[in-house]
Amino acid sequence: MVAAEGVTMADSATRPLVLVRGFGGLDVTAEQRNAYQGYNDGTVYPGRRGDNYIYEGFLLRALKSDRYRYTDATNVVGYYADQMTAPPDLEGFDPDDASGTVLIDPQIAKRVLAQDANGTIWVYRFYDLRPRGLATYGRGLYRLVRLIRKSVERHTPGGFSGVDVVAHSMGGLVVREALLAMHADRPGSASQLVHRVVTLGTPHRGIAFQRLPGWLLEALPQAKDGSDELESFSPESTRFLEIEKAFPVDRILTVVGTNYRAYGVAAASLANRLSTLVDEGSLMTNRSDGLVKQSAAQLPAAPRTFVDKCHGGVDSLVTSREAYEIAMRFFHGTHRVRLWLDDARIERGGDWFGDSEFYFGVSIKPRFVDFELFHQSPDAENCYGPFRDKALADGPPPLEPELRKPLADRGDATTGWAGADRLIWEGWVDGRVKPEQTTPGLVFRLDMYVGERDTRGIGFSDNVIFRKQYYVQAFPSADPALFLHTGEQYVGLRDARTRKELTALADAQAGDGVRAAVRQMKRDANGHWQFEASGTGFDAVLRVAIDADRNAPG
Prior knowledge:
CATH topology of the largest domain: Rossmann fold
CATH class of the largest domain: Alpha Beta
Helix content: 10-25%
Number of domains: 2
Largest sheet: 7 strands, parallel
Radius of gyration: 24 Å
Number of helices: 13
Shape: globular
C-alpha cells in the first residue's frame, strides 16, 4: 500500500506485528498512561555515525524502515476494565467486534485501515484489562489477534497468514497463555493465527530467586492485584512445557541477554549470583541479564540467540538495535543459517600441575552494522563448556533435556551445545537485502574464542588458547557458494569482488592452505560447507548450512 507523500509502505506479504510489554510492577498506573508501553524508547551511542549512532526504538524503526515498513494501528483497538457496548455507527463491523473489553473502534479503523491491515503494528495494552492476571491477558491477546484477522480479511479475503509477535520479559508469558487459549478453543488454531514469536528476556522457566511465599505476597502493598504475575515467575513451575502442545516451538526465537553488569537493579544481580551457589557450589558466575537467568530465558527445542544486553533500561534487550534486527530477520528472512563444530584439537594448555577445563565461544556480526546476531564471551559467561577433553568432545549434557527441568532443580548444566552434532548457532538472514549494492553477497564476521581455566587455583583462570576472526561471504541463490576470508580486503567497499572474481582468487591461492586470504568452501554429501580454522594452539573444522526458510514470505 502507499501512504501520503508517496512513501511506499509494507506490501501484502508483511504480516501484522504485535508488541507485548513486560511486567509493570505492583502499581501500573504509569504503565496505563504510557501509549506505546516502552517500545518507543531507544538508545544513543555517542561517537558513532550513521545507523550506528541513534537507535530510535523498535516502534519508530519499524515505522521508518525501508524494507519492512509498518503503519501504526495501535489506537484502532481499545482496552477496558469493564464491558463496553457497541456504538451506533459500526462502519460495517459486527457489533461483537466493537463491544466487550477488547474492541475495535470503527471510526478509527475506517481511517487507519482504509487500504489494508497487513503491514500494521499493534501495541497490546493488557494492563488496561481486569482482573489482573495472565489468564486475563492471554484471553485479551487472543481476542486482539482475532480482531486483526478480521481486519485483514475485510480488505484481502484469505490474505491472513498469522501475526508476528515480539514480547519482552513477562510479555512472553502472556503470549504463552494466549497460545494455550487458542489451542483450548480450537486445537491447531494457534499455528494458524500466529506466524512467529520473538521473546526478549522472557523468564519462561521462572526467575531463580522468585520464591515469595503467599503470606508475604498478601502483606506487600498492592501485591494482591499483581500476585498472579509474581507467582508466574516461580522457578518450580513447568508450565512452559505446555506450549509445545499448542504451537511449534521452532517458530519461537528466544533472545537471551547476558550483560547483568549494566542492569540498574543491583539487588537482582546479587540475587542471581547467590542462586549459583545452590546450582554450582560457588559464587563465580551470574549468567543472567540482571534479572532473568540465561537458562530461564530459553525454551527446550526452540532456537535461541545470545545478545550482550541487560534486561531493561537504556541499551537493553528492548531498547537496543539488536532486538529489532534479530526479530526482523526471524520474521522476514529467506534463509536459515546454522554453524557446527565438526572437529577440534587444542594443542596447548592443560599444565601438569593444574586441573584445566576449556571453553569455546563464537560471536557473529553482519557487515556494515554495529550489532551482533549472536554473542559469546568470557564476560557474558555463556561459552560452551567446560570441557576436559582437548577435542571438545565431552562437556555438559545435551541442552534440551536440561531445559525441560524446573529452574529450581539443583544444578544448571545448560552450557551445552545448542543442538546435535555440536551445533553452535542458528539464525536467519534475508538474502534480498544488501546494505550496499556495490558489495556482493552476505558477509558475517566470526569471532572465535577458546579459553582455559585452572580449577585448582594453581594456574591461571583466564588463559586464552585461541582467538581469531574470520569473514564468511555467502551467495545464497539457486546455485549457492560460500567463501572464507581471513581479512576484510575483498569484502569492504574499496576492493569488493564478484563471485566469479573470488573463485579465481581462491583457485590462485589454493596452494597456501589455511594461510590463503580467500578460500572457497567445499560442499559435503549433505550440501553443507566445511572450512578450517587454525592458529597457535588450536585447529578446528567447522560446517555451515544455509537453507531456504519454508516459512519465509513468498
